């Protein structure tokens, strides 16, 4: 005997207790409804779908199956954008994605009623601002797309939706502004995402990993942000954006190093202040990475560089220490790393207590016991604070700091300068979708430097970044206040 | 390589390769008149640069690296490339050795240079492996740090300098200067560097190249005057120009030798220049043996620099006569003669592929014209929209 569509669907859903099945009788025909209660809007389901259906069934006169199907689709459930299918696999997939399947004989109507409790829009913890928008992306892709649409009300905003992940069927939206983004970059990103063959995409990091070129992935090559205003600003510069369902972190491509030195705060303050902040960030970054290494190098080999008085005070504070400076600073760094990792894993209520114990009790005791010296704690503490000046690059910089410390301890400033040259030389060779990593400084692009270390007024930024933008390169036709 | 990068690389590598031991060696031979040697070599190089540009108008410089069908030409070309390899290796070696000199007192009294120089060898080999584009990007990125460091160090030295030490000018003895011209010529074949740099550069102009070169060499001459002005008779004993020029300026302030950090920044230029020379050595040796694996040739070149530094140039002052003698023979006689013959043959050859610098320049200008036309049409379409 031939199996009906509803039987086929029921067979596919066996052993899944989450699936709800309702059976109604409309003019002698069996009407089966399949849905997953936890992912559909219950209110809309009962009042918008179930109630009108029941009302219709009560008053329905005898009709053919096709007429009945069409009447339900066009009259009873006319408020919904319904799709139809007779393929059990398609129906199954839609039900799993939050649709309600209304099956009548060999056809099914798929009513999208997806609704899952989601986090409300709030300020992301990694990019807080004093001035400027405080909205942040959430885990729901449609909310995120709404936040983008709210800011870019243009028909040029194009969104391509892909589903990736054999088990997770994660929605990925590739967003760009037509004419502003470069087509070759866009096509390359689309083909790269289409080529992903993995069982699950849990977070945007999974996609990021597939978009990065090269085997050695020491430095990030994909931009990321949690803020829709930054995301939209990057789209306006000609970048391509990627939103992944289930992740509050949006990706942007191509990525250049200078992006991480920019903050949304810079655009809500006077250019002079933004310039100052950017210069501070780069100095802070260099200080954070190099300071422990330089300290060890100065103490071990190049102490003649230090002023006599300062040298005397340092020497008096390290008097009695039995371990060499390199080991000492490595111990402090190691302790700091342990405290950082532990405080990330620990419940919030305990994290405060841990930092007090870690920073004060352990630090003081270690100094008193003569294991470590106060200057090394000061250097590591300042360096660690400075690391957070660029929150997006903390992981890379934490590792680099250890490399520089080791080189400084082994061969002094000579080692530091050699390491610096090698690392920069490697960074200079990196390209993100053909765009050099150090643009607009190496290679030098004068017009792009208006949003560089020395930030110009928005009115002066007449063009988009030269290498990112597609055909439409101009932001504004001319400066409003012509001198 | 863009024209901007070309000029930056030219200026910084010219200064970086001469800023350390050379002025004190010259001071040992010429005393207060050492600056004159720098000026003489500047003039010689100006002629060399003009010659390079004239020849590259007539022929393709890039062809020097590619095998030709004519066996005699090919033989000459291989000879030239082989000696050019030796020349560039020697330049890399000099800078390599100078870096040791800079850190000698602070570091390599206690540590073994033969072991720890491997770090530097790795860095310059890596730079050379990455190629001239990468090196020029590095130079471009660090240009302001290096230039500002040079400027501050020069000012610090200039305020302490006694300029009367180079006077009176009437007493200049030209005989030792002439013999020094022969002795130190291997340090000053800058036009040869420009010849190879121009292969990878676009839209470079003779006038700008001359201007950049002259400015760099005048700066270098001034640095030498300051150096001799500060140290006078003991200048030959000073370990190097850049590490000593600001040594006495900050003594009164009791702030230590913070100028050392500036010296370190200028040293970045030296490391990059060393990498650049090693890159050209790799390029030349590869054109001699095009069938050999390039990575093996690169390793051989790097190993040569290391071995020569550890064995031959253990003490540069003692072996300078020998080193300069060998290098001058190579740089003056062999490279000069071979290059002239080779380029002359290229000039008089009727059919020459038109891909020299000037042709590149034309291509670039036509490209930029096309771009301008494109952007105009874009503007029009935007306006229509």
3D architecture notes:
The complex is a heterodimer of chains A (483) and B (385). By secondary structure, chain A is α+β, with helices and mostly antiparallel strands. Chain A has 14 helices and 12 strands. Chain A has helices at 5-12, 42-59, 65-76, 88-96, 141-151, 183-194, 204-211, 228-236, 271-300, 308-317, 325-345, 348-368, 374-387, 394-429; strands at residues 19-26, 29-36, 83-85, 99-104, 107-112, 157-164, 170-177, 223-225, 240-244, 250-253, 431-432, 435-436. In chain A, the strands form 3 sheets. Chain A has a 5-stranded antiparallel β-sheet, sandwiched between helices. In chain A, strands 6-7-9-10-8 form a 5-stranded antiparallel β-sheet, with helices on both faces. Chain A has a two-stranded antiparallel ribbon with strand order 11-12. In chain A, strand 6 and strand 7 (170-177) form a beta hairpin. In chain A, helix 1 (5-12) packs across helix 4 (88-96), helix 11 packs antiparallel against helix 12 and helix 11 packs across helix 13. Chain A is elongated and about 105 Å long. Chain B has 385 residues and is mainly α. Chain B contains 14 helices and no strands. Chain B has helices at residues 3-16, 22-30, 34-58, 71-103, 113-130, 132-158, 174-183, 190-200, 206-231, 241-244, 259-288, 294-311, 316-348, 357-384. In chain B, helix 3 packs across helix 7. Mean pLDDT of chain B is 81; it is low at 352-364 and 381-385.
């Amino acid at each position: 005997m031939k199996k009906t569509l509803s039987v086929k669907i029921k067979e596919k859903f066996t052993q899944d207790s989450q699936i709800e099945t309702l059976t109604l009788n409309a003019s002698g025909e069996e009407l089966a409804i399949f849905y997953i209660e936890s992912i559909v809007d219950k209110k809309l389901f009962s009042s918008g779908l179930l109630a009108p259906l029941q009302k219709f069934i009560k008053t329905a006169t005898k009709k053919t199956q096709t007429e009945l199907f069409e009447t339900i689709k066009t009259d009873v459930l006319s408020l919904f954008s319904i799709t139809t299918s007779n393929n059990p696999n398609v129906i199954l997939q839609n039900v799993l994605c939050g649709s309600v399947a209304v099956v009548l004989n060999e056809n099914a109507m798929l009513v999208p009623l997806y609704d899952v409790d989601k986090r409300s829009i709030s300020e992301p913890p990694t990019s807080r601002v004093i001035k400027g928008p405080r909205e942040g992306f959430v885990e729901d892709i449609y909310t995120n797309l709404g936040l983008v649409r709210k800011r870019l009300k243009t028909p040029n905003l194009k969104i391509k939706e892909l589903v990736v992940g054999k088990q997770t069927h994660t929605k990925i939206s590739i967003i760009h502004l037509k004419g502003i983004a470069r087509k070759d970059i866009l096509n390359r990103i689309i083909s790269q995402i289409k080529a992903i063959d993995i069982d699950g995409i849990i977070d945007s990091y999974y996609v990021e990993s597939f978009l990065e070129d090269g085997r050695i992935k020491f430095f990030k090559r994909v931009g990321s942000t949690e803020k829709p205003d930054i995301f939209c600003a990057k789209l306006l510069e000609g970048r391509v954006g990627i939103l992944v369902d289930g992740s509050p972190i949006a990706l942007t491509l191509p990525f250049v190093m200078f992006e991480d030195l920019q903050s949304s705060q810079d655009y809500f303050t006077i250019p002079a202040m933004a310039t100052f902040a950017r210069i501070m960030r780069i100095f802070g970054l260099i200080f954070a990475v190099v300071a422990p290494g330089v300290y060890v190098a100065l103490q071990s080999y190049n102490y003649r560089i230090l002023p006599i008085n300062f040298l005397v005070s340092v020497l008096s504070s390290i008097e009695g220490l039995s371990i060499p400076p390199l080991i000492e600073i490595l111990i402090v760094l190691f302790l700091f790393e342990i405290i950082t990792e532990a405080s990330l894993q620990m419940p919030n209520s305990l994290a405060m207590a841990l930092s007090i114990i870690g920073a004060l009790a352990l630090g003081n005791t270690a100094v008193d016991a003569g294991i470590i010296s106060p200057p090394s704690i000061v250097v590591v503490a300042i360096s660690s604070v400075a690391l957070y000046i660029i929150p997006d690059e903390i992981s890379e910089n934490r590792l680099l700091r250890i490399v520089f410390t080791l080189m400084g301890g082994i061969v002094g400033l000579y080692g530091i300068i050699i390491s610096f040259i090698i690392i920069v030389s490697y960074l200079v060779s990196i390209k993100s979708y053909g765009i050099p990593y150090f643009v607009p400084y190496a290679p030098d692009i004068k017009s792009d430097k208006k949003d560089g270390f020395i930030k110009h007024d928005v009115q002066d930024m007449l063009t988009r970044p030269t290498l990112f933008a597609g055909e439409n390169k101009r932001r504004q036709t001319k400066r409003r206040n012509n001198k | 390589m863009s024209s901007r990068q070309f000029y930056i690389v030219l200026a910084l590598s010219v200064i970086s390769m001469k800023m350390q031991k050379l002025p004190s060696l010259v001071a040992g031979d010429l005393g207060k008149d050492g600056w004159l040697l720098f000026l003489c070599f500047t003039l010689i190089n100006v002629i060399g640069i003009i010659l390079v540009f004239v020849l590259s108008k007539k022929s393709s410089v890039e062809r020097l690296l590619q095998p030709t069908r004519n066996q005699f030409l090919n033989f000459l070309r291989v000879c030239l490339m082989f000696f050019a390899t030796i020349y560039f290796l020697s330049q890399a070696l000099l800078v390599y050795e100078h870096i040791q000199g800079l850190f000698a007192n602070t570091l390599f009294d206690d540590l073994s240079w033969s072991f720890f120089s491997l770090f530097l060898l790795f860095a310059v080999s890596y730079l050379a492996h990455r190629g001239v584009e990468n090196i020029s990007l590095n130079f471009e990125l660090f240009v302001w740090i290096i230039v500002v460091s040079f400027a501050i160090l020069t000012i610090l030295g200039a305020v302490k300098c006694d300029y009367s030490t180079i006077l009176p000018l009437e007493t200049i003895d030209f005989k030792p200067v002439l013999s020094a011209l022969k002795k130190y010529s291997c340090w000053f074949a800058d036009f040869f560097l420009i010849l190879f740099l121009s292969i990878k550069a676009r839209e470079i102009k003779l006038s700008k190249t001359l201007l950049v070169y002259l400015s760099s060499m005048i700066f270098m001459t001034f640095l030498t005057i300051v150096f001799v002005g500060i140290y006078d008779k003991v200048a030959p004993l000073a370990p190097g120009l850049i590490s000593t020029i600001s040594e006495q300026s900050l003594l009164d302030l009791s702030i230590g030798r913070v100028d050392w950090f500036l010296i370190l920044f200028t040293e970045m230029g030296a490391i990059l220049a060393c990498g650049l020379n090693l890159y050209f050595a790799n390029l030349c040796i590869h054109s001699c043996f095009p069938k050999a694996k390039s990575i093996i040739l690169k390793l051989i070149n790097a190993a040569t620099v290391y071995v020569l530094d550890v064995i031959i140039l253990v003490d540069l002052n003692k072996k300078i006569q020998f080193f300069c003698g060998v290098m001058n023979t190579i740089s003056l006689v062999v490279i000069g003669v071979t290059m002239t013959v080779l380029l002359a043959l290229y000039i008089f050859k009727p059919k020459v592929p038109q891909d020299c610098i000037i042709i590149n320049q034309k291509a670039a200008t036509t490209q930029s014209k096309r771009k301008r036309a494109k952007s105009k049409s874009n503007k029009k379409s935007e306006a229509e929209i």
